[in-house]
Specification:
With 188 residues, the chain is an alpha+beta fold. The protein has 4 helices and 7 strands, in the order E-H-E-E-H-E-H-E-H-E-E. The chain has one domain: Muramoyl-pentapeptide Carboxypeptidase, domain 2 (2-Layer Sandwich). It has a 5-stranded mixed beta sheet with strand order 2-4-5-7-6, with helices on one face. It has a two-stranded antiparallel ribbon with strand order 1-3.
């Protein structure tokens, strides 16, 4: 495997982020743990972008909290089986950029250690989760735009339906990575 396709471990100690991988818990929209262990992984180019995003957040006294990063295709299958809606879950034939190691689900944590109010919870599969959903309070719009600005400045793009999802542009050109059996992310 080339360096470009090598998954890098992201930890609180090495990257200065808060990690709460919800798919290793029952605190996700399926109501059950999907991963046996919580390992946060990204491809090298995404890891470099994350480092830039961490610097930008720190420059304004904030921190990033990661909810999900690399996701084995088998975990993507579990999510699709639970909610087969391409608005929120990438179809298996298309493949998720999480399964390419180039996507992150995350939020911002303020100086008080609490996450900023983004109007909905992570993984809320509702219209209000759209980046630019009208009718949300000003402070929510501001918080979402702050996260958007940090992530875009770090080289990531967003998808319209999820305020928490960011990915590297051009990710679809990369192959889906399957390390569910040999790698650290084992499924339940």
């Amino acid at each position: 495997m080339t360096d470009k396709l090598q998954l890098i471990h992201i930890t609180q100690e090495t990257h200065g982020v808060d990690i709460d991988l919800v798919y290793a818990t029952d605190r996700n929209f399926t109501g059950k743990a999907i991963y046996k262990e919580a390992h946060c992984l990204l491809l090298a180019p995404a890891e470099a972008g994350l480092r830039k995003a961490v610097e930008l957040a720190a420059s304004i006294g904030m921190k990033l909290r990661i909810f999900d990063a690399y996701r084995p295709p088998q975990a993507q299958q579990v999510l699709w089986d639970f909610l087969p809606d391409p608005t929120y879950i990438a179809e298996l034939g298309r493949g998720s950029n999480h399964s390419r190691g180039t996507a992150l689900d995350l939020t911002l944590i303020g100086g008080n250690g609490e996450p900023l109010d983004m109007g909905t919870g992570f993984d809320a599969m509702v219209k209000e989760s759209e980046h630019f959903h009208q009718g949300l309070p000003q402070h929510v719009q501001r918080n979402r735009l702050l996260l958007l600005g940090i992530m875009h400045a770090a080289g990531f793009t967003h998808i319209p339906s999820e305020w928490w999802h960011y990915e590297l542009p051009g990710s679809r050109a990369l192959p889906v990575i399957d390390n569910s059996e040999s790698g650290p992310l084992k499924l339940m």
